[in-house]
């Protein structure tokens, strides 16, 4: 339990930052429709790789459920965050060429090179933002606007979350 | 059961994911009228698409049964039509009454039996078709064989208890007369052993003026009128300019033959006996 305290703190901090800060920042309506950073997917991405996939799924479900309650998502956060949990091993393998099923799984994210880690985070954020905005609009009428929102929001989320990822994956914390 | 449990144990994470995702989608779909309309319209369209596909597959597997049923129905209808034709042709009041109240098949000129092709050859000079109906189904030698849409296939040459063998048009020993459709100009059919989709027609009268595309019907005591053999592909006057000969594109695709009708001319025995008597009397004269 003690070794998971950093993850619990990270989850609480990121959720609070998202709910009270990022979702309440007034960038003006002309910017807000294009840029909507979401950093809470980082919680799922940084869950211990040695965890059994069922625990990853259940933890993700609880986080998504809390976000739905706090942000009034009506299931939208569960719908979009659960695929990230189920595809996480595939994303890690695609971006780092390392399998989470191999015998030495502990601190896998702390050991992979920075460019691969960034690729993993960026690709996962892109996947999450794509799912989120497609499910939110549920229409192809504003296709290019949706694509632009996905890309700009992914970039802004990556810029905000990268320092957190770096701090968290540094060996000092693990 | 053990294997099923093993399988579920292997994919239980995916199953749980699908369950949670499904609940969440349902919750999200019913949260606002907009999402309800959007998601439900998509799922309805998707459901309709898969339902159509499943129905099509189901329909495909029922086609064989439907074909059999249709062939049986065609045989019944042909028989009824034959009865009506004969009633119209026979004006005497007694004969009319007799046929109106008769269910006896012997009163009919032609009787139709549905059958299916059990096996056949098309690549030899002497091709044969084996049909799944035999003596116990009422099949006899010299009965005609046609497709349900009234195209000529051949005639029965041998019968066993359960099966019968038909000689198709594409057999070099096949002999049958033909006539130009809608006329009484007769001709002879023969197959030269080359293409399974073409036969030769000889001795077409010079008065008939045959043209490409004209239909040739079978002219035989084994078959009713109106059975199409094929359509003229090309025709030419013979060297002596006494008759036309033509190349006929068969109306039936022999390679895709399945359901057929076997036709019995109930008067065939009578005709055969007459012909035998004539032959015998001619022999005694000689």
Helix tally of chain A equals: 8
Q: Mean of the pLDDT scores of chain A?
A: 86
Percentage of residues in DSSP E strands of chain B: 25-35%
Radius of gyration from the alpha-carbon trace of chain A, in angstroms: 16 Å
Oligomeric assembly = heterodimer
Question: In total, how many domains does the architecture of chain B comprise?
Answer: 2
Number of strands of chain B: 12
What is the helical fraction of chain B, as a range of percent? 25-40%
User: Can you tell me the CATH superfamily of the largest domain in chain B?
Assistant: Rod shape-determining protein MreC, domain 1
Class inferred from helices and paired strands of chain B = alpha+beta
* Largest sheet properties of chain A: none
Distance between the termini of chain B: 87 Å
General description of the model:
The complex is a heterodimer of chains A (174) and B (286). Chain A is mainly alpha-helical and 174 residues long. Chain A has one domain (2-28, 38-169). Helices cover 70% and strands 0% of the residues of chain A. Chain A has 8 helices and no strands. Chain A has helices spanning 5-22, 29-32, 41-45, 53-71, 76-96, 108-111, 114-137, 143-169. In chain A, helix 4 (53-71) crosses helix 5 (76-96) and helix 5 packs antiparallel against helix 7. The model of chain A has no long low-confidence stretch (mean pLDDT 86). With 286 residues, chain B is α+β, with helices and mostly antiparallel strands. Chain B folds into 2 domains: 2-61, no CATH class; 109-269, Thrombin, subunit H, CATH 2.40.10. Chain B has helices at 2-29, 33-89, 93-100, 268-285; strands spanning 110-120, 129-131, 144-146, 152-159, 164-168, 176-180, 186-190, 198-205, 215-219, 228-237, 243-250, 259-265. Chain B is elongated and about 100 Å long. Classes of the chains: A mainly alpha (174), B alpha+beta (286). At the A-B interface, helix 4 and helix 5 of A face helix 1 and helix 2 of B.
Give short descriptive properties of this protein.
heterodimer, A: 174 residues, mainly alpha, 70% helix, B: 286 residues, alpha+beta, Thrombin, subunit H, six-stranded antiparallel β-barrel, 27% strand, elongated
């Amino acid at each position: 339990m003690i070794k998971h305290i950093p993850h619990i703190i990270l989850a609480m901090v990121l959720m609070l930052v998202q709910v009270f800060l990022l979702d309440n920042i007034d960038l003006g309506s002309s910017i807000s429709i294009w840029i909507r950073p979401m950093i809470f997917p980082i919680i799922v991405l940084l869950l211990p790789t040695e965890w059994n996939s069922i625990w990853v799924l259940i933890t993700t479900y609880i986080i998504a459920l809390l976000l739905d309650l706090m942000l009034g998502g009506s299931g939208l956060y569960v719908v979009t965050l659960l695929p990230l949990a189920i595809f996480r091993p595939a994303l890690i393998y695609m971006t780092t060429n390392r399998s989470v099923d191999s015998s030495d799984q502990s601190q896998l994210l702390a050991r992979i090179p920075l460019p691969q880690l960034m690729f993993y985070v960026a690709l996962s954020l892109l996947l999450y933002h794509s799912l989120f905005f497609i499910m939110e609009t549920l229409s192809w009428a504003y296709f290019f606007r949706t694509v632009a929102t996905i890309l700009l929001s992914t970039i802004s989320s990556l810029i905000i979350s990268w320092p957190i990822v770096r701090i968290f994956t540094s060996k000092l914390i693990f | 059961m053990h294997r099923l449990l093993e399988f579920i144990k292997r994919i239980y994470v995916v199953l749980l994911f699908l369950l949670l995702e499904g609940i969440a989608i349902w919750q999200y779909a019913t949260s606002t009228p907009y999402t309800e309309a959007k998601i439900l319209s998509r799922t309805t369209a998707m459901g309709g698409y898969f339902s159509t596909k499943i129905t099509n597959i189901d329909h495909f597997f029922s086609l064989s049964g439907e074909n059999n049923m249709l062939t049986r129905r065609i045989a019944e209808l042909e028989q009824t039509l034959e009865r009506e034709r004969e009633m119209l042709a026979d004006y005497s009041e007694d004969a009319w009454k007799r046929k109106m109240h008769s269910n006896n098949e012997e009163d009919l000129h032609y009787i139709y039996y549905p059958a299916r092709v059990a096996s056949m050859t098309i690549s030899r000079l002497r091709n044969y078709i084996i049909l799944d109906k035999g003596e116990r189904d009422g099949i006899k030698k010299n009965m005609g064989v046609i497709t349900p849409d009234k195209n000529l296939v051949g005639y029965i040459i041998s019968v066993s208890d359960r099966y019968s063998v038909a000689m198709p048009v594409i057999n070099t020993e096949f002999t049958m007369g033909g006539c130009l459709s809608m006329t009484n100009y007769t001709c002879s059919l023969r197959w030269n052993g080359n293409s399974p989709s073409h036969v030769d027609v000889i001795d077409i009268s010079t008065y008939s003026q045959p043209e490409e595309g004209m239909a040739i019907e079978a002219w035989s005591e084994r078959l009713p009128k109106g059975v199409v053999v094929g359509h003229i592909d090309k025709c030419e006057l013979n060297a002596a300019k006494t008759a036309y000969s033509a190349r006929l594109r068969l109306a039936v695709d022999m390679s895709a033959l399945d359901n057929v009708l076997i036709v019995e001319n109930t008067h065939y025995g009578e005709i055969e006996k007459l012909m035998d008597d004539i032959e015998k009397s001619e022999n005694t004269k000689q």
